[in-house]
């Protein structure tokens, strides 16, 4: 398996969620950075410019929705796709999806395998572009 040159940011205030998702992404060859709150996540996103962010909806230091809104407003981070993980019962309005870069919403508890599948789908174009660039 070749390593992906891609960095993914995982944001969740539950350490076991970060651990499991990071473990799965590390095994898939991704570079992984983590944050346990929205404020730190925004700083890391601006610093590292990950290709994708997986974030919890409800957490301290700003919700995942607030994070997505701030990232969309920043020209350097506006195009980073986001997968939002939320507890059952938390709804994200369609208008909030169109004014952010949230590409997928998953309910907790979620399957790490399903999450990895969504990540691969969202990054498919980037992975293909990178493979073509490497071949040139």
Folded structure, characterized:
With 136 residues, the chain is an alpha/beta fold. It has a single domain (7-135), classed as 3-Layer(aba) Sandwich (Rossmann fold), CATH 3.40.50.2300. Helix content is 46%, strand content 21%. It is globular.
Overall tally of structural domains: 1
Number of helices: 5
Report helical residue fraction: 40-55%
The total beta strand count reads: 5
Strand order of the largest sheet: 2-1-3-4-5
Low-confidence stretches: 128-136
State the shape: globular
Strand fraction: 15-25%
Blueprint of the fold:
Blueprint: E1 7-11, H1 15-27, E2 31-35, H2 38-48, E3 52-56, H3 64-73, E4 82-87, H4 94-98, E5 102-108, H5 112-135
Helix pairs in contact: 1-5, 2-3
What is the compact description of this entry?
This protein is of the alpha/beta class.
What structural keywords apply?
136 residues; alpha/beta; Rossmann fold; 5-stranded parallel sheet; 5 helices; globular
